Amino acid sequence: MLMIDMRNSTARISMREIAAAGRRYASNPIALASFMSGVRLTPEVLLEGAWRSPAGAAGNFAFFRHLMLGLLPQLYDVRHLEALGGRFALRVTGIGRHGDFTTMAVNRRVVTLTGLPLDEASGTAITDASIRADAFLALWNDILANLAETTLAQIAAARSALSQTR
To answer: Which in 25, 57, 79, 147 has the greatest CB count within 10 A?
Structure first.
């Protein structure tokens, strides 16, 4: 496995590796895997400019904000989120106040807000899972790399089929 950190924006780690590592990268890898299985990607996602946003402190952690607030609501299956109970509270650790997100199903749409829901009785934040920022970045690198590989294979197959019919 690669050593991952915020400077190595090309590091990759799969959800399977995160789950196998136990609590090393995520507080609740099973809940995180369940949440991540609701992400629905198409090749058009590869053209999204948000992937070039800086992930580190110098860029004020723009990557995570763009991903969670802008892209995730477009990419997430609302029925899957409803099956999870209608919301998922995720804390991306290591980026301070920029790392708390709540993704919710509202009127058959997915919405992500900054912050975490609070327990009414105790007033403490509720987190379904937390993940280290470097691991979350590497996870998305892996997801996108797999999507790119699949897309390129489909393009090559289509070109091959086209050239055989000529």
So the answer is: 25
Distances (CA, A) of 75 to 34, 52, 64, 69: 15, 17, 15, 11
Residue with token string 């807000």: 113
31 belongs to a structural domain? yes
Walk across the sheet containing 100-106 and list its strands: 109-114, 100-106, 87-93, 129-132
Q: How many domains does the chain have?
A: 1
pLDDT at 59: 64
- Give the Cβ contact number of residue 49 at 10 Å: 7
- In whole angstroms, give the CA distance from residue 165 to residue 146: 29
Q: Is 107 a member of any domain? A: yes
Question: How much is the pTM?
Answer: 0.85
